[in-house]
Prior knowledge:
Two copies of one chain form a homodimer.
Chain A: E1 4-9, H1 15-26, E2 29-31, H2 33-43, H3 47-51, H4 73-95, E3 98-101, H5 105-108, E4 115-120, H6 123-133, H7 141-162, E5 175-178, H8 184-202
Helix pairs in contact in A: 1-8, 2-4, 6-7
Amino acid sequence: xxxxxxxxxxxxxxxxxxxxxxxxxxxxxxxxxxxxxxxxxxxxxxxxxxxxxxxxxxxxxxxxxxxxxxxxxxxxxxxxxxxxxxxxxxxxxxxxxxxxxxxxxxxxxxxxxxxxxxxxxxxxxxxxxxxxxxxxxxxxxxxxxxxxxxxxxxxxxxxxxxxxxxxxxxxxxxxxxxxxxxxxxxxxxxxxxxxxxxxxxxx
Amino acid sequence: xxxxxxxxxxxxxxxxxxxxxxxxxxxxxxxxxxxxxxxxxxxxxxxxxxxxxxxxxxxxxxxxxxxxxxxxxxxxxxxxxxxxxxxxxxxxxxxxxxxxxxxxxxxxxxxxxxxxxxxxxxxxxxxxxxxxxxxxxxxxxxxxxxxxxxxxxxxxxxxxxxxxxxxxxxxxxxxxxxxxxxxxxxxxxxxxxxxxxxxxxxx
Lengths: 203, 203
């Protein structure tokens, strides 16, 4: 069975950077936006539209032409997109060893016994990381905090839809990494060694 | 400044084994019961008596001759023992690099910027580990569960006494290790590499 490493992350914790660097160090596939691209091809929907699906409440993304608050259509529509995304994630996991960021891949790929890493940080560090990323378009602390909390809420909501597990609950993770005080780069050799021992022990 | 690694752990998660193996691999000091021994020497109290102080509610340990539920004596007495223990922990941290298990050392040594590892596992795995340890004196699942939950509660209570931080809250840990599916031995090389990068990055 392929070695799958899933990364769940709080916005602004550096989880994406961690996933990318870890995949590079291990020389294995890295999937993040690639999943959205594949989904766009499969579903015929725009990437920009699909991108937010695991980040925002799906109802926001429901095409306006179908809008009817008493209809079950939005839920069916949403389930259909999610089912397609899950299928793509399983296809990727079948292909080769890989790192998958977000999209509840740890739950979807439970049968593959992935190493489930959760990346988190203190609020001040998360704000700082978001600000660095927005270089030239910085917002206030208050605006970042509001945005971060809303994203946390929506990711957690997406998790509720996909399975019965609680986002960020330690028992649904194998390793939780606090990036508040450190550079992501510095801990990659440690994670490379950790996953090696982890997968050997799992056999 | 010395490199300090603190291990907080759930009962039955293998945190003590992890701490011991990590200290061995790094060839640095390991403190666990040694703290109790030093405390016994310092306070003149019996080791058996002191051993439970960070595991059980301190009032249980208050000598019966002082017992008076309307008196503040037990609290003063308890604070005195805790202060002595904290002093010993700081002395050990000053001496050399070390791994310290339990006793809220991560809070007491906050100024030393320790790598704070939290070790945890699913209930079934914790019961199983306790049972292996009790070889020949096994108890029922229900008894283990009750004992584990009581110990969790008391450790958490001890944390409340020592500082304002919440036991097992990810934001009070730097790395959280779920030992449910793996052997402790297998992840030691990963932790050795992780702490190396962590302390380098912290500088």
